[in-house]
Design a protein that fits this description.
By secondary structure, the chain is mainly β. It is 0% helix and 52% strand.
């Protein structure tokens, strides 16, 4: 099973990026999905998730209204659309399937001021 995250890069403040996480070897279907991030010198923190039982989305206060989590079951891929990016969003972003205890390798997002 592999979670392959992509889409990170360098962007100016106010810009947008879309992260993707392609899952292979497992069909995540209606399982919970989530994105976490870890900034330099800080602990990993949850950013967004889709709850499995009712498809509700949950966001951290720091990204609410700017980030959108989504999934495409046909492609077995999850996404994180990030708009109005701020320098404090700079971090390595990780996708995860919590029910399976699986993590992607991370993709670096750098937001310049």
């Amino acid at each position: 099973v592999q979670l392959q995250a992509s889409g990170g890069g360098l962007v100016q403040a106010g810009g947008s990026l879309r992260l993707s996480c392609a899952v292979s070897g497992l069909t995540f279907g209606n399982s919970a999905i989530a994105w976490f991030r870890q900034a330099p010198g800080k602990e990993r923190e949850g950013v967004a998730c889709i709850v499995s039982d009712n498809d509700d989305t949950v966001y951290s206060d720091s990204v609410k209204g700017r980030f959108t989590i989504a999934s495409d079951n046909a492609k077995n891929t999850m996404y994180l659309q990030m708009n109005s990016l701020k320098p404090e969003d700079t971090a390595v972003y990780y996708c995860t399937l919590p029910a399976f205890g699986l993590w992607g390798q991370g993709t670096l997002v750098t937001v310049s001021s």
